[in-house]
Amino acid sequence: MPEKEMKFIEGIMKEEDITLIEPEEEETCQKVEACQNCGLCLTVCPILEVLQHESYSGPRSITSELSRTVREFWKAKDIVYYCTKCGRCQEICSKNVPVPKVVSLIRSKLFKQRRELVPKSFEAMLENLQKYGLAFEPMDEEARVESAKGRLEILGLPYVPDKVKSHVEVLYFPGCQADNLLPEIRESAKLVLEKLGADYTLLPELKCCSLPSILMGDSETIDKLEKDFIEKVKNLGVKTVVTTCAGCTATLEEIRKRNNADFEVKHIIEYIIEDIGEEKFKKLLQNHPEHVSVTIHSPCHLDRHLGKYTTDYAEEILEMLPNVGFKKLEDPERCCGAGGLLNIYNPQISKAIVKKEIEDIQKSGAQTVVTPCPLCLVQIDQALFKKKAETGALDYTVFLAKRLYVA
Question: In which element (H, E) is residue 326 found?
Answer without folding.
Answer: strand 324-326
